[in-house]
Structures are given as structure tokens and as C-alpha cells.
What does this fold into?
Amino acid sequence: DTGVSQDPRHKITKRGQNVTFRCDPISEHNRLYWYRQTLGQGPEFLTYFQNEAQLEKSRLLSDRFSAERPKGSFSTLEIQRTEQGDSAMYLCASSFETGSSEAFFGQGTRLTVV
Amino acid sequence: GESVGLHLPTLSVQEGDNSIINCAYSNSASDYFIWYKQESGKGPQFIIDIRSNMDKRQGQRVTVLLNKTVKHLSLQIAATQPGDSAVYFCAEKIQGAQKLVFGQGTRLTINP
It folds into this structure.
């Protein structure tokens, strides 16, 4: 296990289509986070899981977005009826549960909605 | 409100010189801070962190300074190398919360 893995690295989709991204965290990490990053900006928090429980969701996460972590290991982020404004880099990160712990990021999935 | 900002969007230094990247944060309830480095097309890479009960922490060629009085964070990189060229983000975590709040970033360019 060399780090957080995200798939696919790039996705181009037509407006209105659904897309799903996958994140495999560092195996011993029980916290998993999704962030979104647009060009020239810092990452913005979307949601976070502790094991399989989704404990916090940002107001950025509209009802078209859903995230799951069914077995407390990998996670998926689905965007339904994509819009051009959804174009961004979607980053996944994981960390240990204990106190303040550094979050390690994956390479991200670059989504382009055309 | 929650916000983390950077004073300078770009910084250029000569190879071998030291660089200092600054960050201002506004939430006095933040108790944990991280600096990340992000190269083009890659995810943020952890550099160094500091907790609010400390004012200085050193790593390999990097030092983070925290001034809670003025809510200021800085990253010092010693003897810069071409590989240090990247965008640097500071991020804060509010006590009791889990999410990180990022600033806009500073693009560091190392000139040969």
C-alpha cells in the first residue's frame, strides 16, 4: 500500500450524465475525506467518513452528489446529472482517527463536463 | 468566519536561497495547521504540521512558525532546490472539527 489511490485520474463527460469516482485510502486509516479543487484555488471540503459512517457533509454537496463507504474501506463519490460547474479536481484523503492527524491526499480525479 | 489566506500569490527565489511563505488565518479556535505542497496535476503532498500548543517545528529543510497572537503561520524552506517549485497551501483545522480549511495557495518558483 503506497498511499491513497483514486480512479479514474481523468474523466470527460457530457452535461447531464452521471459519473462515479473511487477512492482507496491508506489501509489502516479509518477516516476518509472528499475535497473539490478548482483551478487556482485551495481544496474545499465536501464530506468525511469515519469507518462507514458519513459524519459531515458540506453545503457544497448538493443533492446531486452522493458519497458512500459501504465497508469502511474504499469510497465512491457519485455526481448525477453533471453540470459544467462540476468541472474540477476531486481529491480524496485519509487519516488516522487519533486526535489531529495529517491527512494524506490521493492524486485526484480531474472531471471535465462538456 | 473560517478562512485561511495567503499574503502573496507568487514568490520567486534564486536556487540555494531561503524562502518564506506566509499565511494568515482568522479562526482563533483552530488548533492544528498543516502545510501542503502541490505540483501540477498532482494531489497535495504533506510537508509539515504544527499544533497550537507549539510555536515552531522543524523538519528536513523546512520550518513552520506559528504566531497565535496575530494568527499568522509561515513556512520557511532552506537552501531551495528546483524541485521545491510548486504551489504551497496552508490549511487549518478547527478544534473538534475534522475538515481542513485551505487558503488559495502561493506559487513558489525557484530560479536557476
Remarks:
- Chain A has a mean pLDDT of 93.
- The radius of gyration of chain A is 13 Å.
- The longest strand of chain A covers residues 88-95.
